[in-house]
Design brief:
This protein is an all-alpha fold. Helix content is 68%, strand content 0%.
Length: 151
Amino acid sequence: MELVPGGPLECPQLDMLRSMSAEDLLDGAAVLSREAADCVRSGLFLYFRSLDESHRISQGIRTSSGSYWHGIMHRQEGDWSNSKYWFRRTGSHPVFAELERETGHPWDPFAFVDRCAAAEAGGSVAGPLIEIQMLEWEALMRHCFRNALGR
């Protein structure tokens, strides 16, 4: 996952995602939280660099996780201030503790936006940030998937 991807990956998996319902994504399991299932879809669109589709979904989710995906989407499009706006709306999120364990530092989404902006401007190396971004994506995806199924 690039920090600021150039555009959607054109691949069969993205085409398949576009045609799947939340139930399909969750392998037919009963969806107990529509918002969390929508978060899973939004996050998967981000994975395939389809920012517009992710945005259409995340902007309609009125939960902390929906705001979190929305903030990541704006960070990946390089809209740093809008990203921070959505991270303010996210508040303190349960995945922050996991990210703190994984990175060894308190998780600060605003500082991470600043680090991504500096890397995109050529002021720092992007590689470690891409790895952290992937940890963040995985943690938030697990959280949303579990919540969608009521686990």
